[in-house]
Amino acid sequence: MKDIDFGNYLYQLRKDNKLTQRYVAYQLDVSDKAVSKWEMGKSKPDLDKLKLLATLYNVSLDELLDVQNTKKDINISKIVLTGGPCAGKTTALNWISNYFTKRGYTVLFVPETATELISNGVAPWTCGTNYEYQKFQVQLQKVKEKIFDDAARTMNNNKILIVCDRGMLDNKAYMKDVEFKRLMREFNTSETKERDSYDAVFHLVSAAKGKEDVYTLANNQARTESIEEARVLDDKIISSWTGHPHFRIIDNSTDFENKLERLLKEIASFLGEPEPLEIERKFLIYYPDIKELESMTNCTKVDITQTYLKSIDGVERRVRARGIDGDYLYYLTEKKKITGLKRIEVERKLTQDEYLALLMEADTRLHPIHKTRYCLSENNQYFEIDIYPEWDSQAIMEIELSGEDDPINIPYFIKTIKEVTDDENYKNYNMAKDMPKQLVKKKIK
Question: pTM score > 0.85 for this model?
Answer without folding.
Answer: no
